[in-house]
Amino acid sequence: LAGSGAQAGWLVWALSLNDAWTESSLHGLAYGFGAVAATYGASILGGNLSHTEGPSIIGVTVGGPLAGAYPLLRSNAQVGDQIYLSGSIGRATQGYLHPSPEFRQERHRWRPHLEESSLLAVTAGVNACMDVSDGLLKDAGRMADASKLSMHLDTAQIPYVGEQAMALRGGEDYVLLFSAKPSTQLPDWATL
After folding, report:
1. Which of 40, 68, 120, 138 is deepest in the core (most CB within 10 A)?
2. Using CA atoms, how far apart are residues 7 and 4, in angstroms rounded to an integer?
3. Is the pLDDT of residue 185 over 70?
């Protein structure tokens, strides 16, 4: 939702869980899921629960109204745009590489950048947007490919946690990667 300039509206989820899940862990998942949905005003409409002998699968489908007149698309970056992030990258990678309780907290401290996205959706000069889910380098390449252009990232300007090389390649940060005309008035959280 955040990557396309939409607001939280509704969601459904499908759980296919194996025997490793206890009643307590399922309760924790449901409580956390509900708390995050409530924080952003999303309604949980329903879902499905089933058992599997294989790996557990959690599938979530979400939808919501656009914040602006049009969706933000990764394919709309323009020649001459500057590239921005809505936050730091690398927290999730740190949590994966160093699975201590402290770094696990870092890995799970992400939040959807819905407020930032809503502002970008109504800001003249913002051209393209997507979330960083598979690593900044891979996702910037996807935006460049979709927009049929090439991008130059100044790695000295990128805010990150941990080792920079790993932060650039790691995923699950869910900050926004977006492009805007150089004259665009952006808030302080937008980093070049």
Report:
1. 120
2. 9
3. yes
